[in-house]
Amino acid sequence: MTVEAFAPAKINLSLHVTGRRADGYHLLDSLVAFADIGDRIRLTPAAEWSLAVEGPMAPGVPTGEDNLCLKAARMMGGPPAAITLIKELPAAAGIGGGSADAAAVLRGLNALDERPLPAEPVALGADIPVCLRARAARMRGIGEQVEDVPSLPPLYACLVNPGVTVPTPDIFATLTQRENAPMPDIQECTEIEEFAVWLARQRNDLEGPARAIAPSIGVVLGLLAATSGCQLARMSGSGATCFGLYPSLPEAREAAAEIRAQRPNWWVAATPLG
Ligand SMILES: C[C@](O)(CO)[C@H](O)COP(=O)(O)OP(=O)(O)OC[C@H]1O[C@@H](n2ccc(N)nc2=O)[C@H](O)[C@@H]1O
Ligand SMILES: Nc1ncnc2c1ncn2[C@@H]1O[C@H](COP(=O)(O)OP(=O)(O)OP(=O)(O)O)[C@@H](O)[C@H]1O
Prior knowledge:
The chain is an alpha+beta fold. 28% of the residues lie in helices and 29% in strands. It contains 8 helices and 10 strands. A hairpin with a 5-residue loop joins strand 1 and strand 2. Helix 1 packs parallel to helix 2. It is an enzyme of class 2 (transferase). Pathway: Isoprenoid biosynthesis; isopentenyl diphosphate biosynthesis via DXP pathway; isopentenyl diphosphate from 1-deoxy-D-xylulose 5-phosphate: step 3/6. Its EC number is 2.7.1.148. One of its GO terms (biological process) is terpenoid biosynthetic process.
C-alpha cells in the first residue's frame, strides 16, 4: 500500500517579529495561508527508512539524514517506509518547502497506519505546526501556537522567486529591531479589496534584512506591483519568494505570464490561497 501526501507552499501574508526568547528564537505573529501548488510525498512500507528526491526542484536538496522528511520520519518512529519526495517548490525560499515536506510525512505516516503524531512537532522546525494543518491560520509564539482565523475572502496569488536562496538564520541574525507591535485582530471581510487595505497596514518585519542580503527582492516586488489587478505585493517568510494578490485566478495567471516573459529564469506560479 502506498500513501500520498501533499505539501503545499506556505505563504506568510504578514509576519510580525514581536520579541526574542532567551534561547535566541524569535516570537512571531503571522497570518499564514496555503497555495494549491506544492511538493508531493509518497510513502510505501519497507524494511528500512529510505528517501528518494525527484522532480524539477530536486537538484541541491539534501537526500540524506539532514532532509527534513527523514528527520520527521525518525521523530514519528514506527514501522519504516520508503519515502519519495517530488520537489516542485524552490528550497530556502520562504515558502516552507522543507517544513511543508516534513509535515506531509507526518500526516502521511499517520494515514498509513494511524500511528500518533509527535507531541511537539515544533521541535522539527518553527513552521511545522502550521504546515501540519495546511489551512489559513494565525501563528504565534515561535510557531507552536496555531489558531483558526476568521474566513478570508477568496484570494489568488502570483508567487515569484528570483532564484536567490536566502538562509532563514542569516535573516533573523541581521534583524536590528526585534520588539515590534503584534498584529491587531484579523479583520473579517468578504472582498479582497477590503482585505488588502487591512493587510497593507500589516508588515513582514524580515523584508528589510532580506532585501539587504538579496536586493533582487526589491525588483520582484516592483514587477508584481506593476501587474494589472495586483492589490498588494509582499515578501513571504524570510524570502526571497514574494507574492502579489489578485481578485481572480485569471488575473493571477496573467500576472504570472507577464513576469515569466520578462524573467524566464525565475520561478513563477499562480495559485488560489486558503
Ligand atoms: C520565518 C518563518 O518561515 C515564518 O513562517 C519561520 O519562522 C521559519 O521556520 P523554519 O524554517 O521551520 O525555522 P527553523 O528551522 O525552526 O529555524 C531556522 C532558524 O531560524 C531562526 N528562527 C526561526 C523561527 C523563529 N521563530 N525564530 C528564529 O529565530 C533560528 O535562527 C533558527 O535556527
Ligand atoms: N525536504 C526539503 N526540502 C528543501 N530543503 C530541505 C529539505 N530538507 C532539508 N532541507 C534544507 O533546508 C534548507 C531550507 O529549506 P526550506 O525550503 O525548508 O526553507 P524555507 O522555504 O526558507 O523555509 P521557511 O519558509 O520555513 O523559512 C535548505 O537549504 C536545505 O538544505
